[in-house]
């Protein structure tokens, strides 16, 4: 079989960026949650908020560290595999991505250290301020990255001449047409991720009877937040979809599995798209609903995929199914948020074990929703890299061979598999040791700066002699170094 | 004509970033290279403790360099990265393995040996790859119309293997002189003992590279042997620094070996720059050819002028906090 460097580069980019994305999407939400906890602790002086904040800051540190490590790889991907794209888009993407890096470093240099290690060393107000600045910093990072991506989806403010994009207006390029919808959608996704992970972990502690009072507070708080965020995400997603319909109609056609331009388009619940024959098999749909959602009119006309030649269509099946997984998970999140309210009104929130178990399982849902959402927006742009301007085939590094791309693809998979399984395993250890952990550890001078992961003092291995029936004892041992 | 030559300003910024990176990540990579040869496991703890608080700050310069190159000199970014495709992967994989080893080794007990290998192997591979990039830069790149057209392993030649090995020896020397500065007792004795052989290795390898380089490329030959007599001051100062390292090790000075090694690196780096100036993608493209549009360079420059001083102050502060000797059993954890 002929190895295609384009396909392999796309797989490699999808792999490394997906792997990277799961870390920041969580830390962005968690940073805001920690700032909220710090704010509550500062205002009410109730130590339970500080306990929660200290614990989640530890989790934040580990996840942030993994995000930084996987991010180093990202800053070289454009050059190694997409050098024509890098060369052509550098006038815009270079400064934008550099600003993201500068934001991250500025944040780490100035405030992360204080948040992680400074609780007893700086006044409470300064600590709160650092927590807020870390949260704001993660949002500014999001701003730059989403601006870069949105420009690739809906390029504006630039013109293509002499083989490169040149800036006509920074404002129009940065605030390009799809930017605000994508940014809001992503920020809400991060908040959903943070809330569902905290809710899921709190539910698990409550089920195990550990630090129940603090975890009840955390769970209750998350469920209130979710009651607003989850439905808001559906609304923002709708606006985002309408914006996509305006600027990238073929992406929407792929999301809907819609081949022929027509009116009264059904909303397909199930179908097996067949790109070769340009049709669907086993369609199950609700008549006219897609037209209603997308045009707010049952008779609304929606462009079909056949408007463009096959080679200009995105891979329909991936987009179609990723979209359904994302929306389905979103609906499930709303359902969980509302169920929480119903149980709360009945006073059964902390007793309904099935619900707490369900929340545990749901902690992975936002990650899947975020990844499938990105699959929709990224593969839905195919074959374009800069929509309507530059294709993926034009962007790939000319000197790249299939063998080189395969070598690094396998290499990255091996490196990530070993490193990040160690990281995730360690994260599980931190969660297992829990809120009671770190008992034996006292911070010393040498703890002060820099390394995020060192904010957690949990031992790496699971000890055979650790007594699972006595987690508090385990925690104390784990905390001693 | 513009008032400021933005491309030139950016060349200085990137050049400054590279030497900052080489000096700072150089010694902590060097610790990794020396790691397997340390006298004992306890000494390994101390070695790692001596760089643990600063290493990730050191690596920020690399990420900044990657992003800055894309923004300011996209042609360099989009030619050298494809040309070094396999080497870049090896460097990144090495940096990842050694980076996480810092975090997990202290928290591990039975799996500690795995993190030792991860740290030493990752550091060695990453260093060799960086040295090979330098060698490949001296060799020049096979380009047509601003695009790399060579093969996957064009960069891997006897010359780049030598520059890779030279960088290994150089970083190890930075590492051993750092240990002289930061440790005491048995570990410091060991560091003193290995510094002189490392210095000789560095001088021999750098010497061969220096003699070889003018033959690799005619332009370098012209630069050194035609009219610019003044630049011969650089190798002269380099030798003075080498002598200073040897003398200060013999007199068991603690700070001077590290300072003189940094001096040796800086003059070698300047020698490299004058050999190729103003070509950033030899043999065809100068820094002005490779620059991005002025508006892009200016837009980022504004942010950079604000953030770089903060990073420098923070870096200095971190080193200040961790000044003094690292002792066994205490320190970082």
Summarize the topology.
The complex is a heterodimer of chains A (481) and B (333).
Chain A: H1 5-44, H2 47-81, H3 83-117, H4 124-153, E1 158-161, E2 164-167, H5 170-174, H6 179-208, H7 212-247, H8 249-256, E3 267-274, E4 279-286, H9 289-295, H10 316-345, H11 353-362, H12 365-379, E5 384-386, E6 390-391, H13 392-395, H14 402-433, H15 471-479
Chain B: H1 6-34, H2 41-51, H3 55-72, H4 74-83, H5 85-105, H6 112-139, E1 143-144, E2 147-148, H7 158-182, H8 185-216, H9 218-225, H10 233-250, H11 256-276, E3 279-281, E4 285-286, H12 287-290, H13 294-321
Antiparallel strand pairs in B: 1-2, 3-4
Helix pairs in contact in B: 1-3, 1-6, 1-7, 3-4, 3-13, 5-6, 6-7, 7-8, 7-11, 8-9, 8-10, 10-11
Give a description of the structure.
The complex is a heterodimer of chains A (about 475) and B (about 325). Chain A is about 70% helix and about 5% strand. Chain A is mainly alpha-helical. Chain A has one domain. In chain A, the strands form 3 sheets. In chain A, strands 1-2 form a two-stranded antiparallel sheet. A two-stranded antiparallel ribbon of chain A has the order 3-4. In chain A, strand 5 (about 385) and strand 6 (about 390) form a beta hairpin. In chain A, helix 3 (about 85-115) runs antiparallel to helix 4 (about 125-155). The longest helix of chain A has about 40 residues, at about 5-45. Mean pLDDT of chain A is about 90; it is low at about 440-450 and about 465-480. Chain B is mostly helical. Chain B has a single domain, classed as Formate dehydrogenase/DMSO reductase fold, CATH 1.20.1630. Chain B contains 13 helices and 4 strands. Chain B has helices at about 5-35, 40-50, 55-70, 75-85, 85-105, 110-140, 160-180, 185-215, 220-225, 235-250, 255-275, 285-290, 295-320, and strands at about 145, 145-150, 280, 285. In chain B, the strands form 2 sheets. In chain B, strands 1-2 form a two-stranded antiparallel sheet. Chain B has a two-stranded antiparallel sheet with strand order 3-4. In chain B, strand 1 and strand 2 form a beta hairpin. The N and C termini of chain B lie far apart (about 55 Å). The mean pLDDT of chain B is about 90. The interface between A and B is large, with 67 and 72 residues.
